[in-house]
Amino acid sequence: MWKVFFLNRNFIKESVRDELPNLYEVKVFPKYVGICGTDKNIYLGKKPVKEPLVLGHEIAGLTEKGEKVVVFPNYWCGYCNNCRRGFHNSCRNKISIGVNTDGGMAEYINVPKDFVFRIPDDLNLELGALIEPTAVAVAAVNKIDKEIGKIIILGGGSTGTLISIVAQINGLEAFIIEKDRRKEEILKEKGFEVTSELEFDDRIVVIDTINNQESIAIAQTILKNSVARSELIITGLDEEQINLNRDIIVRSEVTIKGSIIYDRDDFLNSIKIISGNREKFNKIVDKVCSIDSINECFRKCVIEQPNIKVLVKMDPI
Questions:
Q1: Of the N and C termini of the chain, which has fewer Cβ atoms inside 10 Å?
Q2: What Pfam families does UniProt report for this protein, alphabetically (predicted)?
């Protein structure tokens, strides 16, 4: 079998010894792998990992029987305090493929049966690769107070755009704030609602998909200029330490929530949502590149150029 290893900002395809699945695993042949902000941060050195590492956690592919499947790439332990209470997304011993163990940029991967999900036979595998990041969006939108109908999303990457789509499917107004003018134009061309407004005359939810000092400052400005009892939901992991203004949070009674990945139900709902709204999700894919040109594609399409979502086709194009 072959794997594509990431080492020192390079992807290297190598032949390795075949890995046989055990009785509790399914052999999955990845066909499309999505690139996300985590992969970009690993590439740039912002998220340290043990190299060499096989990247890729947004995976759609086929089983040995030819079944279309997607991989739930965060394996929970089942016995930590969080898992015992059903909070599997916050597992203390979580194994995240493509991050702390080898991921999907390989000829095949062996996945525990509980973390392999069938998708409809008529759903193309490009859309299948969007199921995992869409589950992140589903989890975030599910945390919104049901009495609030408007959300402001900070960051127009794949997480921000997917939150926008899921929110609108759920009947919410969704606006994206994106500081990169090149990406802002791409968002407008794709039909997303983009705004620069920082003041709203209603209760709102700000969803920060970036989470650095700049984005948190913008979020708090919006919350200060909006109606009390609004919400801040943080999905981004860019910076560990952020500054919060006590008066804005306390005097406006802002509710702050974290949202980390998703649970099993979010993942299953993601499959249903994409299956029923295919055209809405097709528009976010900017580029599909071949695994054989991953070095050039990653550098140009992920690092140098603004993008919403880049997919890697695991077979040569």
A1: C
A2: ADH_N (PF08240)
